[in-house]
Amino acid sequence: MNQGLATRYLGLQLAHPVIASASPLTATFDGMRRLEDAHAAAVVMASLFEEQIRAEDTRYAMFTEYTADSNPEAATYFPELPDYRYGVSGHIETLRRAAEALDIPVIASLNGVSDDGWLDYAVQLEQPAPPRSSSTFIFCPPTWP
Questions:
Q1: Which residues pair with 48 in a beta bridge?
Q2: pLDDT per residue over 102-113, tens digit each?
Q3: Can you spell out the DSSP letters for 27-89?
């Protein structure tokens, strides 16, 4: 680590201050691997928005539950998804894979609109972190009147 460029960001010690911000490259594991190969000091995943997750969950429930009793075979239109963890499952899986495989910090971002959302989704985002990594959460409360 070059001491002339070493820096701290969000409590993380980085080799240099070049961090890949949220972008299409940080949305996939392969993209984050490419950024690590290009010597990014850390990557920031796209934000997880609570209101987006709620909208997706409402849509999923509407498709699977609302029409289930309308026709005997309607219950089989949408198969049960035993591993479905609301709208966050793909995001969390990408975070877990990256946190386990990459040697640079992977920073997750959460935008919650309710107290329950903040707590629930923050716990889910923190769980994939392997023992060798550290999680840093920064709470930025809304500033509306």
A1: 110
A2: 999 988 887 777
A3: GSHHHHHHHHHTT-SEEEEEEEEHHHHHHHHHHHHIIIIITTTTSGGGGGSS---TT-BTBTH
The CA–CA distances, whole Å, from 11 to 53, 107, 143 equal: 28, 11, 24
Q: Is the pTM of this model over 0.85?
A: no
| Rounded CA separation 95/127 (Å) | 10
Q: Which two tokens stand for residue 99?
A: 């946190």
- Alpha-carbon gap, residue 46 to 28, rounded angstroms: 10
| pLDDT, tens digit (0-9, with 9 covering 90-100), for 43-88 | 998 888 877 777 777 777 776 666 666 666 666 666 666 655 556 7
